[in-house]
Amino acid sequence: SPPLPAARAPASPPLPAAGAPASPPLPAAAAPASPPLPAAVAPASPPLPTAAAPASPALPAAQATAPVPEAPAVAAAVAAAPAAAPSTAAPTALPSAPMLTEGGGEMVPEFGAEQDFSTEPLESRLSSKDLNRRCSAYAELSGLMSGGTDGAAAAFELLKTSIDICLAEALPKGQDSALSALSVYLEHCPDVASADVLPLVRRLIEHKSIDKPKMQQLVPPIVVLITEHCECPAVVGEISACLGELENAKKKTAGFLKKQVALVFRLLHQLLSDFGPLKMHHKLGYLNLMVKYVTDSDRGIREACYSVLLEHSCWTGAIPDAVKAMEEPQRKEVAKRLEGLSEEEKARGEPRRLYRSEQGAAAAEAEAGGGTKASKPLDKFDLVEASNALKFLPKGWCIEKVFSMEKWKEKQVHLQVLTSLMDTKRLAPSEGYAALVPSLQRILKAESNLPVVTEAAKCVGLMARGLRKEFERPAKQLLPVALARINDKSVWKPSILIEPVEQLLWSVPFEFFLDEIQPHVLSKSVFVK
Questions:
Q1: Is 337 within 8 Å of 305 (Cβ atoms)?
Q2: Which residues touch 329 (CB under 8 Å, ≥6 apart)?
Q3: Degrees (nearest 5) of the Cα angle 357, 358, 360?
Q4: Hey, is 456 helix, strand or coil?
């Protein structure tokens, strides 16, 4: 339609004047539809590149790449534009802003040359906002403290006053350097005060970054070193008190709390593994915490609880009594995991760590022994909780009543009350056991009824096994009486007198036993020999 281009032709020039970048595509789109249109637009097109050239050198290049295949006049104008306004100015580079750390200091590029801050004072570097400066101070302090040089004393004192700075590190790089320096301080400082370092246990557990893997990895070795100075009862008490406060806190994040609880149980496992069950005694109450949390919904907490229970079982050779308070699925799981361990995995030797108060004596002993420390095997008897059997005797029970009874069955039942209570791994020392000895001697010497002699001899053996050296004096009185009946074939049988006499060796020295048995070796009786 010829009138249409005529109507649009007057309106086209204002558009390029108002928006220079948008003008070129418009004529190109209209060119195929109406032949007269390029002619009308052509006079107006050449000024466009000329006006735009000084403002933006890149604009003609952008127009040259635009797809305008069928507009000869526009193509010619675009081709001529670079020649009309050549750009000779070099582009100006903007200065790059320095990278900042969390404290506002400038961060050194990761792959750049490491800066040397050794000429700056340690105090100023520790208080600096620059992370790299602080890390260099931590590294230098670690070298001074571990090297035993003349500056070690000053380094110990400086780090002691900078512990708050170490614990305030928020980035993993700073935490690694700071806590490594703190570990060196705890390991090498000769005069660490327990009252100064014990509160660090709580501060580490409550650290704002304790849920991060880096802190979870760095904290256990530090707590172990603190335990060398403060000993297990104090550290376990601090951990238990901290855990109780975390549970009762009004404002707490569930996920963060789970990480803290799991870390607490891993710390207890580490202490049990390093110091052994004699120092990490079950009476400290941490096994009850395992019973409480072993059913938690968090897998990390459950696994940490099972690891503590299995470690204790490997040391003692038996599942802890605390497991009996668990529900049946958890008891079966502990038994299953323990059964799945090989003998090598169950084997435990001496504890790997000693208290600082013990290390001096151990070093002196090793020096006296020619450089080797005499190893003392772990006696699992010391790990068993003692039972006060006499406390549970029926009211009015007295061993002397057996002599007024006429029927042997009554005597046997009366003595079985005592043997049933004393049939435990360990007995609590009491003067009451020595009071039983005269009556037991009388029964062993004169009683003719075998079931009654058997029960009396059983009482003797159980007391010797459960009291060990606490029963030495009564055992020395009972051994000759039992050996005096060695010529009686009716009572000198394994089930009657032989086993109880052997159990007396828990209490009497072996030399004493040999002296007592020597006269019977010279007996004329073949049976006695």
A1: no
A2: none
A3: 85
A4: helix
Residues β-bridged to residue 387: 427
Which amino acid appears at position 236 of this protein?
V
d(CA 419, CA 455): 7
Q: What number of other Cβ atoms are within 10 A of residue 200's Cβ?
A: 21
For the CA atoms of the chain, what is the radius of gyration? 44
Q: What is the DSSP letter of 496?
A: I
| pLDDT tens-digit map of 195-228 | 999 999 999 999 999 999 999 999 999 999 999 9
Q: Report the phi/psi class of residue 396: left, alpha or beta, with left for phi > 0 and alpha for psi in -120 to 50.
A: left
d(CA 458, CA 444): 11
Burial class (CB in 10 A: 0-12, 13-18, 19+), 13: middle
Least Cα distance to 271 among 295, 297, 307 occurs for 307
Answer yes or no: are the C-beta atoms of 476 and 436 closer than 8 Å. Answer: no
Torsion angle of C-alpha atoms 369, 370, 373, 375, degrees rounded to 10: -70
Q: Look at residue 507 and give its three-state secondary structure.
A: coil
Long-range CB contacts (within 8 A, 24+) of 342-346: 345/314, 346/314
Return d(Cα 316, Cα 307) in angstroms, integer.
Answer: 14
Give the integer Cα–Cα distance in Å for 270 and 218: 13
pLDDT tops 50 at residue 11: no
Q: Which of 481, 462, 452, 320 is nearest to 390 (CA)?
A: 462
pLDDT of 61 reads 40
Given its phi and psi angles, is residue 390 left (phi above 0), alpha (psi -120 to 50 degrees) or beta? alpha
Query: What does each C-alpha distance from 15 to 9, 18, 24, 74 come to in angstroms?
Result: 11, 5, 10, 16
CB 287 within 8 A of CB 312: yes
Instruction: Look at residue 128 in the predicted model and tell me its pLDDT.
Output: 93
- Please give the average per-residue pLDDT across 253-266, as a whole number: 92
Which residue from 264, 246, 339 is spatially nearest to 300, judged by alpha carbons? 264
Residue 69 structure tokens: 């295949």
Q: Which among 286, 348, 291, 290 is positioned nearest to 317, based on CA atoms? A: 348
Q: What are the angstrom distances between the C-alpha of 20 and each of 59, 178, 399, 419? A: 10, 61, 119, 111
Among 42, 44, 36, residue whose Cα is nearest residue 75? 42
* DSSP string computed for 415-442: HHHHHHHH-SS-B---HHHHHHHHHHHH
CB 415 within 8 A of CB 400: no
For residues 275-291, give the mean pLDDT. Answer: 90
d(CA 208, CA 214): 12
How many Cβ atoms from other residues are within 10 Å of residue 319's Cβ? Answer: 16
Q: What is the pLDDT, as a whole number, of residue 488?
A: 87
